[in-house]
Backbone:
């Protein structure tokens, strides 16, 4: 039985098993990645508008 690498709950759906995280933790990981990029990635110009920053971060972490 596969377990989530973050919270150690049992994974049921094939997608979660594939990535190693449950749906809730996947979302949390993405939010964390997003915030890290937003704060620390020098490629994101702090003078950009929030919408532009959002677009850049999404490109970097592969969100739509
Ligand atoms: Zn989890």
Residues:
């Amino acid at each position: 039985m596969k377990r989530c690498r973050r919270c150690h709950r049992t994974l049921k759906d094939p997608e979660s098993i594939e990535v190693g995280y449950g749906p809730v933790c996947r979302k949390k990981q993405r939010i964390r990645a997003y915030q890290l990029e937003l704060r620390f990635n020098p490629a994101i110009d702090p003078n950009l508008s929030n919408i532009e920053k959002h677009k850049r971060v999404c490109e970097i972490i592969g969100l739509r």
Remarks:
- The chain has a mean pLDDT of 94.
- The radius of gyration is 15 Å.
- Residues 23-40 form the longest helix (18 residues).
